Amino acid sequence: MHRINLLSQRLANQIAAGEVVERPASVVKELLENSLDSGATRLDIDVEQGGVKLIRVRDNGSGIQKDDLALALSRHATSKITELADLESIGSLGFRGEALASISSVSRLSLQSLAAAASDGLAWQVQVEGQDMEAAVTPVSHPEGTTVEVRDLFFNTPARRKFLRTEKTEFGRIEETVKRLALSRFDVQFTLNHNKRSVHQLQAARSDFEKQRRVGLVCGPAFVENSVFVDMERAGLRLWGWVSLPTFSRSQADLQYFYVNGRIIRDKLVAHAIKQAYRDVLFHGRHPAYVLYLELSSAAVDVNVHPTKHEVRFRDSRLVHDFLFSALHKALAEVRPEDHIAASADAAEAPANQLQPGTSDDFYQMESQKPLTLSESGSVHQLSDYSRGAERGQYYQPSAQPRPQLDSLAKLYEADEEIPPLGYAIAQLHGIYILAQNKDGLIVVDMHAA
Q1: Which residues of the chain have pLDDT under 70?
Q2: Is position 1 within any domain?
Q3: Does the residue 192 lie in any domain?
Q4: Are 322 and 364 in a shared domain?
Q5: Where would I find the H helices in 220-281?
Q6: Does a structural domain hold residue 209?
Q7: Judgement on whether residues 304 and 437 belong to the same structural domain of the protein
Q8: Distance between CA atoms of 330 and 277, rounded to whole angstroms?
Q9: What is the pLDDT of residue 94?
Q10: Which range marks the domain in which residue 251 is found?
């Protein structure tokens, strides 16, 4: 039987890296969170070959003192907390002190920084490689703030590198990480470049209009146009943000961002509360889209659950669940059909000469709902034009010769087969209702509640 040995620092760091550094996107997340904790208002991210060759993050934060540079690369070394009581009310994104040590153990890392409090005004650099954990500090020219360069990720752990996806896939994950953090901090400017090509330039947003504009840039203009703003507060909890209308649902849960005190999380309790709020207005198998922010006392939530810090535990989970459900359920209950066509109404108020057929504003270049047609008995003329026109606020001109349409509907009374209870669809109203006809008359069906 083998004797018990104390693991070396290098081996311990590589074991920890297996939890903290899963892929290049994990590195970007940890570095950006450190920059945000330092008070940075501008973040520049440069990536090459999906983050495998190079990840560079530069900020204008408070910087790191010379004497702390080498210590910053040690495990469990952090400036975020100092004593056990600090774990009860964590206000920073990072606090474990494992990120830089884990990253440096599986890459070639260079850290340059000029501290705002440096009396001599000199910047310093520390470089380490996975094979050699000894840090050497040298002077360097650098503006106030910090730059971290991570090169050749997983160069000394080929098994980990072999399981990475394609360059496009890995960069897609990095881009999603930047988007998540950009939605959490509207006051920070984000710039993302891939292979020396600009991908995103998100300016700092301070006004409500600028915040909504950033949401549109990250989630798409269709989401902003088909969402309602929520802002409710009760029992020390505040929920605000944007939730999609029931008509704007997704086939997968890929447009869902939920933040607790500025930290994006994935929590079953939160997901269940939101799903229950949409239960009566959403088709089975469809998913809502939302960008929501929950604010509460830091002592009421525990973020020290997992190394990735994606999971949290609430002190009073029932209170949080009920608050989320009631707030969203109330907001959705107040949605009226006119809210679904608000964009169309705004466009309809424009001068008639601006509503030319075939024209569209970039903000409305979303795919409109396909119109309904008669079943085996003919077609309703110009319904597709109506659907597209209503989407953009244009006026629909009815057919000049409705006789063929009426003749086809008359066949309902001549057919021998049994007519369905809801009859046959003959039109779609406002993209929300179905107008159908059976032997008893006309029926209006709410297609999202049926």
Answers
A1: 1, 16-19, 130-133, 307, 337-419, 448-450
A2: no
A3: yes
A4: no
A5: 221-225, 268-277
A6: no
A7: no
A8: 9
A9: 83
A10: 219-335
Q: What is residue 374's predicted lDDT score, i.e. its pLDDT?
A: 42
Q: How far is CA 134 from CA 10, 70, 130, in A?
A: 10, 9, 10
Facing residues of 194 across strands? 47, 197
- Answer with the one of 204, 239, 261 that is the final residue of a domain: 204
Supply the pLDDT for residue 375: 42
CATH value at residue 57:
3.30.565.10
State how far the Cα of 215 lies from the Cα of 218, in Å rounded to an integer.
5
For residue 239, the domain's CATH number is 3.30.230.10
Contacts with 15 (C-beta within 8 Å, 6 or more apart), sequence order: 7
Shared domain for 90 and 193, answered yes or no, is: yes
Q: What are the phi and psi torsion angles at 157 (to 5°)?
A: -130, 75
Q: What is the pLDDT of residues 301-326, one digit of tens each?
A: 988 777 677 889 999 999 999 999 99
Asked if residues 183 and 215 have their Cβ atoms less than 8 Å apart, the reply is yes
For helices 24-37 and 167-184, what crossing angle results, to 10°? 20
Residue at 213 is within a domain: no
Q: Are residues 376 and 328 part of one domain?
A: no
124 and 192 housed in the same domain: yes
User: In the chain, how many domains are there?
Assistant: 3
Q: How many CB atoms lie within 10 A of CB 348?
A: 16
Which string of b and e fits 310-329 if b means at least 16 CB within 10 Å? Answer: eebebeeeebbbebbbebbb
- Say what the alpha-carbon torsion angle 143, 147, 152, 158 is, to the nearest 10 degrees: 160
- Apex 21 CA angle, 183 and 154, nearest 5: 130
pLDDT of residue 273: 96
What pLDDT sits at residue 361? 41
Return d(Cα 127, Cα 69) in angstroms, integer.
10
Cα–Cα distance for residue pair 205/142, rounded to 1 Å: 27
**Global pTM value:** 0.74
The reported pLDDT for the residue numbered 1 is 61
Q: Are 56 and 148 in contact (CB under 8 A)?
A: yes
Identify the bridge partners of residue 231 per DSSP, sorted by sequence position.
240
Last residue of a domain, one of 204, 234, 258: 204
Residues 431 and 364 in one domain: yes
Same structural domain for residues 82 and 143? yes
Are 309 and 175 in the same domain? no
Which strand ranges, in their side-by-side order, compose the sheet holding 441-446? 424-429, 433-438, 441-446
Q: For tokens 């070394």, what's the residue?
A: 77
Cross-strand pairs, 284: none
- Beta-strand relationship, 290-295 and 256-260: parallel
